[in-house]
């Protein structure tokens, strides 16, 4: 899935959703993608729209959220929680899930922290700072 080609990555979302809806056998990654899509019914029509949805640009300056980026952030957080990396993220995720009514709500709070740490790493041309990321996540528990 981790291709730098935007269209290839987007097609993986569309294909995972198609297979899920058709009841076809899916790879573990496709299953993860489909679970995220299930949690986001606002994106179902987009994923069923074919090429029109695939080619669209989502510009933050227009106040738009890129649905593929948003779902990708959920996938990243779920992978981090599954491996507990950075160490402690699983516990933060569990506590936020309990406090805010489920995993999706917790992840929606965590996404801003992930986006920030990725932005800083890209800006500074360094690896993401896992300790700063975990501190930002833990700060969510104090709010």
Can you describe this structure in just a few lines?
The protein is an all-alpha fold and 143 residues long. The protein is built from eight helices and no strands.
Work out the radius of gyration.
Answer: 16 Å
Q: Roughly what percent helix?
A: 55-70%
Compute the separation of the termini in Å.
35 Å
The SSE order reads HHHHHHHH
Number of strands: 0
- Total domains, how many? 2
The major β-sheet equals:
none
> Quick check: average pLDDT?
92
Low-confidence region ranges:
none
Determine the strand fraction and express it as a percent band. under 5%
Tally of helical segments: 8
Mass-distribution shape = globular
Helix and strand composition category:
mainly alpha
For this structure, the quaternary state is: single chain
């Amino acid at each position: 899935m981790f291709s730098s080609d935007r269209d290839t990555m987007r097609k993986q979302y569309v294909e995972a959703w198609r297979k899920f809806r058709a009841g076809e056998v899916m790879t573990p990654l496709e299953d993860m993608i489909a679970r995220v899509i299930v949690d986001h019914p606002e994106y179902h029509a987009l994923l069923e729209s074919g090429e029109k949805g695939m080619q669209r640009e989502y510009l933050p300056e227009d106040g738009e959220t890129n649905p593929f980026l948003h779902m990708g952030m959920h996938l990243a957080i779920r992978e981090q929680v599954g491996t507990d990396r950075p160490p402690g993220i699983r516990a933060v995720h569990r506590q936020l899930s309990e406090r805010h009514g489920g995993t999706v709500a917790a992840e929606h709070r965590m996404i801003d922290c992930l986006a920030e740490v990725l932005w800083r790493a890209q800006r500074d041309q360094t690896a993401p700072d896992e300790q700063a990321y975990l501190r930002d996540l833990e700060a969510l528990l104090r709010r």
